Amino acid sequence: MRAGGTTGEDGTTPGETPAEREFLALERELAVFLRRARAQSGEMAREVHPELESSAYGLFVRLDDAGPQRATELSAYFGVGKATMSRQLRALEQLGLVARDPDPADGRASLVRLTDEGRDRFRHVRDARRERYVRKLADWDRAEVAELARLLNHFNRRSEG
């Protein structure tokens, strides 16, 4: 909000340009979306294992999609420090949900992968989540769902690095 301005019910301030309104609307909707996504990720991580932090769910998604990764690749992908990633992976290892194997390209490094138990637990929860999305978006045209996925992918790719 601009200094001295008043905010309307739609969150805009008089005198804003259409572009300012569009980006404020985007910011507002992303804030709601991210808050809900974090809460859902926490719920789903705990469905995989009751002791997991919400950030663990994203690690499962990445490892399931991309396969074994170095911890440094994971920390870069998620934009977190190496120490944070190390702590998260150590917790998952202790629960038997991920394992480290020597990297064939560099024996000094290791690759993190989902264990069979980790993959099975994750996929069970992921499939249940997908069913919830199917129900929530049942009245959407498939092209709308595809367009939303495409736009989110585009946004995420532009946000990397």
Structure write-up:
The chain is mainly alpha-helical and 161 residues long. It contains six helices and two strands. It has helices at residues 18-48, 55-66, 71-78, 82-94, 116-136, 142-159, and strands at residues 98-103, 106-114. A two-stranded antiparallel ribbon has the order 1-2. Strand 1 and strand 2 form a beta hairpin. The protein starts with 17 loop residues before the first helix and ends with a helix. The mean pLDDT is 88.
Mean pLDDT: 88
How does the major sheet shape up? 2 strands, antiparallel
Strand arrangement, largest sheet? 1-2
List the total number of helices.
6
C-alpha-based Rg, rounded: 20 Å
- Please state the overall shape, judged from the principal axes of the Cα atoms: globular
Helix amount:
55-70%
Roughly what fraction of the amino acids lie in strands?
5-15%
**Count the strands?**
2
Outline the low-pLDDT stretches.
none
Structural class: mainly alpha
Query: Gap between N and C termini, in Å?
Result: 29 Å
User: What's the helix-strand series?
Assistant: HHHHEEHH
In short:
The protein is mainly alpha-helical and 161 residues long.
Q: Helices and strands in order, then pairings?
A:
Layout: H1 18-48, H2 55-66, H3 71-78, H4 82-94, E1 98-103, E2 106-114, H5 116-136, H6 142-159
Antiparallel strand pairs: 1-2
